[in-house]
Amino acid sequence: MQEITNNIYYVGVNDRNKALFEGLWPLPNGVSYNSYLIVDEKVCLVDTVEVDFFVPFIERIREVIGDRQIDYLVINHMEPDHSGSIGLIKKYYPGLKIVGNSKTFDMMKGFYGIADGTHLVKEGDTLSLGSRELRFAMIPMVHWPETMVTFDTSAGALFSGDAFGCFGALNGGLVDSQINCDEFWLEMVRYYSNIVGKYGTPVQNALKKLSGLQINYICSTHGPVWHENIDRVVKLYDRMSRYETDPGLVICYGTMYGNTERAAEVVAAAASRAGLKDIVMYNVSKTHHSYIIRDVFRYRGLIVGAPTYNAGLYHEMEVLLSELAGKDIKNHCMGWFGSYAWAGKAVAKIKEWNDTRLHYEAVGTPVEIRQSLDAATHAACEALGRDMARRLLG
């Protein structure tokens, strides 16, 4: 068994088989579904795991409590990777009370047809387990409307749901002090940008609500338990939810025969010569958009380029711009270029996306390339790269 601290145990599982989280986001290093047991005069289980992993889940629970009963099951978040085992756990422990808010129970009835055996909590309510007390706070839209957090006042342990989570399975160790966390930092940014990113204001509201707590452990539903790195984790969430960025540049392009790609290389080289050091480049048809979105959250500058296709914009670029618009990312600078063989539409379509959905600060003069680069469009691409670098460094 894995004890975190003072009779708080980890009973979660690793998923190393799933390829795409939510059917969308790559999991090259897997993901963990974290669940916790608090053992006192009463036994409380905090969140469950995806139903496919119920067998190892129940085995871990029994390893901790043996034949004891579970008195309470707290559900901080109703997404099925955390609530999927509710029905089965009730069959093993029929007397347990499910603790949640009104929106929790509305979703629970819809997902699983369960409406009885509940214990309703509201903002600031407490629940005694004997020698320790749990306190509840609502953090709606981080990132579902029913989300809440549970705070163990004795241990200073915050059970935070998906907040402060990240992609990546746990390779033996659990608490950050036991493991090398280097691989998790960028995966936290990718998780936040892909999953939570649109909800910056609710995240800010949640951070303010939690700011007065003396937190010793953050026990999220994905990734490590944070202990030594709590300040770093909270500051990272604060920064991302404010849409604060570094003065770097993401250049992403679509290309069919290499002409748009060559233009992107010219833009990047010019930005580098102008003094910009942090530049990343992506072919939108080769790199999964999950990683591009992550770096758009990291860097203030964005330059996109794509060919005209079917009298419109190259499909993968259209998809990426739609994804970025859906994340409601703020405080960015954007430039763009496009290419065409006989009828140019890409530049106008990218401008339309920015004018109507993205609303980024336009930087430089858009470049429209007919068939391939010539001296004039080569110079225009250089100017676009220089202008962006100067804006970001200025």
TrEMBL record:
GO molecular function: electron transfer activity; FMN binding; metal ion binding; oxidoreductase activity
Cross-referenced InterPro entries: Flavodoxin/NO_synth, Flavoprotein-like_sf, Metallo-B-lactamas, ODP_dom, RibonucZ/Hydroxyglut_hydro, Rubredoxin-O_OxRdtase
Taxonomic superkingdom: Bacteria
Residue intervals of the Flavodoxin-like domain: 249-389
Coiled-coil segments: none
Any single Pfam family the record assigns to this protein: ODP
Family: In the N-terminal section; belongs to the zinc metallo-hydrolase group 3 family.
Protein name: FprA family A-type flavoprotein
